[in-house]
Amino acid sequence: MNNFEFKNPTKIIFGKDSIDKIKNEIPEDAKVLLLYGGGSIKKNGIYDQVKTALSKVNIVEFGGIPANPEYSVLMDALKVIKDEKITYLLAVGGGSVIDGTKFLSAAALYDGDTPWNILKNNIATKEGMPFGTVLTLPATGSEMNSGAVITRKETQEKLAMGGPGLFPVFSILDPQVIASIPERQLANGITDAFTHVLEQYMTYPIGASLQDRFAESILQTLIEVAPKVIKDPTDYKATADFMWSCTMALNGLIQKGVPGDWAVHAIGHELTALFGIDHARTLAVIAPSHYKYNFEAKKEKLAQYGERVWNITEGSTDDKAYTAIEKTVDFFHGLGIDTKLSDYTKDYKGTAEKISKRFTERGWLGLGEHQSLSPDKVEEIVKMAY
Ligand code: NZQ
Ligand code: ZN
After folding, report:
1. Nearest CA to ligand 1 atom 38
2. Which chain residues have CB less than 5 Å from ligand 2, an ion?
3. Which atom of ligand 1 sits closest to the CA of residue 36?
4. pTM of whole model > 0.90?
5. Domains along the chain with CATH numbers
6. Which of 4, 145, 185, 230 could link 256 by a cystine bridge, Cβ 3.0 to 4.6 Å?
7. 63 CB under 6 A from ligand 1?
């Protein structure tokens, strides 16, 4: 196992009817900016629950943060923060609203030139404006990590940011919010969380047995609850497991002491930036080709995953590893998620070259757990995913 340090300061408040508990978490003298997305919270009652809980708090609102949170919209919110002298942020939404809020938390205290530089120059935020979250969509793990991904339509970019100052102070996780999530977003959430685990697991054996088993148990739980959650998103037992699995998949715990890959996400983000494909679906497009292309380097973990998660008992290491990739593709298909770029766009030709050029320009010359995936290899992987 590699050496590691682990600190995750986010307080999790989990369970039925827990939204009311935000009133215990936000300082009474705070001036709060309540941030939300396209309005789902007004239809499903979450907005009313938040407003009732915070009836004694001074609140300003900013709605309209789109999926794949857009820089120009967030700059409007930043103006509100400055004009209204906001002291505390509250994100009520999925990964997009929470990530947008993290950007604002950093930008509010940033004294550099343009806040875009936080993303462009990958500036780690040591201190941000404090914020809490009410999670409405299990998927990204953003509710308990310090990362965010921001999109800029103007330049077709989607860049990541983060830093120790960007953990939520608290996050409310009430699985009852899942009842109103459309099937497409449920499938996305399962696929995203599943791939988060794969990114931290599908590398090479490092002797971290506990992390491996944490990872495998999250994958097994997601496989078990996926059909139940899709069939009945009011099934509390299944949705509670789903929600906590998504959080555990990306709150730092399973990444500690082990190598991480994250190439699937790096490439996937480009597909969202170029074509607007849902984040999770880009991962399902890239992951199978990535694992096939890097088969030799990853086959031991692929076979272990095949044995322990998919109960594959027959064949050699190579056979098990290959079948494990097929099982993963079948799992995505079972959720209604397509796994080829051409399923999403007719304009896929030239995408591989475009992405490899962007990575070269950014100096991303070696992705993956061995830092060995050069832009020309990325190009091959994307072509395999057409
Ligand atoms: O905008 P509203 O109207 O709220 O509707 C949203 C949105 O259209 C809807 N929704 C959310 N909760 C709902 C609901 N509809 C009904 N009932 C509810 N309870 O779902 C749609 C998608 O929401 P979004 O927040 O975009 O989805 P998700 O949570 O999948 O977030 C995706 C974003 O997170 C980034 C992605 O790149 C993408 O930009 N990621 C963030 C990560 C992180 N911070 O750690 C890691 C991930 O890998 C990912 O990159
Ligand atoms: Zn993801």
Report:
1. 68
2. 192
3. 4
4. yes
5. 11-176 (3.40.50.1970), 182-384 (1.20.1090.10)
6. 4
7. no
